[in-house]
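Title: Prediction job returns without error message
Component: structure pipeline
Severity: low
Priority: P3
Assignee: unassigned

Description:
Job completed but the reporter wants confirmation the result is attached to the right record. Sequence as submitted:
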Amino acid sequence: MNVLLDNFPEFRDGFIGTVSITAVSSVIALVLGVLIAGFRVSPVPPLRFFGTAWVTLMRNTPLTLLFLIFFFVVPEILFPGMSSFVLGSLALGFYTSSFVCEAVRSGINTVPLGQAEAARSIGMTFAQTLRIVVFPQATRIVIAPLSSIFIALTKNSAIAGAFSVAELFGWQKLMSDRGYDIVPVFLWVALGYLVVTFTISGLFRLLERRMEVAR
C-alpha cells in the first residue's frame, strides 16, 4: 500500500494520462473507422481502394512500429513540435481505426441489400442511405465487437508509456527506477487498467441494453 500512498500524485497523473489517451484515441478511431467503413462499401472505386489500403496497412503494421513512425518520422516531415500526447493518440487512433472499420463494415453487411436499394429508389444519395437507413441498424450489431476493440485499445495505450507519454505504464517504470518491489507496482497498475476497462465494458453494456429497447 505504501508504494501507492507515497507516490499517489504520480499514480494519479499516470491514471489520468491513460484515461485521456484512451478517450482521445477512441474518438479518433471511431470517427476514422466509420468513415473508412463507408469508403469500403462505397460505389466509387477510388474510395474503396483507399479504404482497403488503409485497413490492410494499419492492421498489418505492428503497433510499436507505428509509434516509432509517428514519434520519429512524422515530426521531422510534417508536424515539428507536436506533443508526445498528440502523437501517441494519433498512432493509437489510426491503428485501432482499422479494426473499428472492419467491425462497422461487418455490421453494414448484415443489413438487407433491399433496404439500401429501396432508399436509392426514392432518391436518397449513397451518404443519406448510409446515415439514415444502414448505420442505425448496423449500430446494434457492432456494439459488442466495438466494446472488445476499445478495451484492447486501453491495454495498447501502455506502449505510449515507452514514448514519454504520461500514463500508468510510465508510472510503473518510474517506480521501478526508484527501487520499489515490482510486484505491488504491477498490482496497482493492473488495478488501474481494470478500472478503465470495466468502465468501458459497463458503458457498452448500458448502450447495448438501450439499443435493444429501441429495436
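Comment from assignee: result matches the submitted record. The mean pLDDT is 85.
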